[in-house]
Amino acid sequence: MLHGGASYHVNTLTDPTVLEHDITSLYLPGLVDNSTRSQLADLEALLICDRLHPGLLREHAGALLGVADRGGTIVVLGEVEAHTWLSDVDFSPRPTNFWWWLTGESPGIRRHNADHSIWHYVGPEDVVWHYHGILLPARDVTPLVSTDDGGLVLYEDRSSTAGRLLVSTMDPVHHHGSNFMPAATRFLYGLLRWLAADPE
User: Fold this and answer.
1) Antiparallel, parallel or unpaired: β 26-27 and 2-3
2) Is 62 in contact with 34 (CB distance < 8 Å)?
3) Which residue numbers in the chain have pLDDT < 50?
4) Fewer CB within a 10 Å sphere, N or C end of the chain?
5) Cα–Cα distance measured from residue 38 to residue 168, given in angstroms and rounded to the nearest whole number
6) Domain 2-197, what fold?
7) Tell me: the pLDDT tens digits for 112-165?
């Protein structure tokens, strides 16, 4: 897990359930002096936590994406301006509806490709909370979660690298590490179980 040292990152990395997965903690600013970069070469999977410094991610995108270029899996979570360092994807902001569950509104979130391996680990209700904008990939991708207006909140890309990218605008590490929103915790735990299973 690549993190930035924020309290919610650290709280997540010290969660006993997360630690069950024998996760290596990689500190994003360590890419500057190569203390983190050397560890990337041996990874089969990299989870890029949400709410990281976009400038540092842009600066070191080549090294990070090398994990997928070698055939590995990268999960990119929200609020990291992924559209500025991933190829062929645009971003469109949307107002965040935090209170749909109190007002009775539909959050406008739809699950897709029910046969995808991730849904063996993540329940449909685990992705129905809120999101921070939508992604509009130009490549052929597998939609996993979309909004009513057709934007993607979660998708898998197997065409831009030798491996795969799972990209989302949701920020489960922030919510889990800040100790609120159970659906975000379930989503995060499910992602980790999916990665641990190394599905094809």
Assistant:
1) parallel
2) no
3) none
4) C
5) 26
6) Rossmann fold (3.40.50)
7) 999 999 999 999 999 998 888 999 999 999 999 999 989 999 999 999 999 999
